[in-house]
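Changelog-adjacent note: as of this version, every example in the card shows the full chain rather than a window. The one below runs 305 residues end to end.
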Amino acid sequence: MVIVVGSSNIDFTATVDRLPDRGETVLGHHFAQSFGGKGANQAVAAARAGAQVVFLSKVGMDANGILMERHLAAQGLSRHAVLRDDQAPTGVAMILIDRAGDNQIVVVSGSNGRFTADDIRQNATLMTGARVLLLQMEIPLETVREALTFAKRLGLITILNPAPACPLPSDLLRLVDILTPNESEAQTLTGSADMAEAAHLLTTRGAGAVVVTCGAEGALMSRGKGVTHVPAFLVDTIDSTGAGDAFNGALAWAMAEGAPIETAIEVANAAGALATTTRGAQESMPFKREIDSLRRLGIRRVPSA
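Full-length structure tokens:
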């Protein structure tokens, strides 16, 4: 079983020919309202990949909170514990997507920012029976730390997706079995533009293993001695929104199933690739049969020189 602790948002997405420069207004072509938040996305991704999933999150007392709770109830999660906050609205995200599938995202945390360490303590029994804890950083850092601390006491595998990135102290990193930054997050965390070096640096600071997701180039994994490259799968990308969340959800499922980390990363690469072939965040999370089918095809990208 996988327990996911994290954010829930309502997403507002517009498609444009190109992403605007600073101070520029551009015309959009399509608008959609959907369900998002890295926590909710990754919970849905893990469930669709095949995991039994428990999801803990906090929403507001507003209409968006009601919509999110009803939505989660229909997503096939084993259990969801949606806390309600009467001081802040449900989190929202504003997303722009260009013709190449690249995006810009602004997140307003709302109730996610009021998800406290005490909320973790009061709901810690949700971790009982789980094998993997999956976290992101759209909730306060002290809440992340509290969840990691409880999970380590219970012997869970801990996965932290450090998005959005902020400085992480070594004592927190030592609670993380697998850290999963993308390239920009890895550079923010280490100051290095060399992804192999960044991965190695993060292991020296305490993380058990570091998996840097590199988009079309696949993923790099370091456990402190050398770096392993796991190639990406070849797909026709139309929208990269949610690809990282699909990767993390599938990675958590595979680790909960007892897969070696290299195999788990391959599964996650397939899920992340598939997510780019459909527009939207949660809508694009692939199902296990789709992941298995892409892995059987085995068509990988040739790494760039």
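Structural remarks: The chain has one domain: 2-20+29-297.
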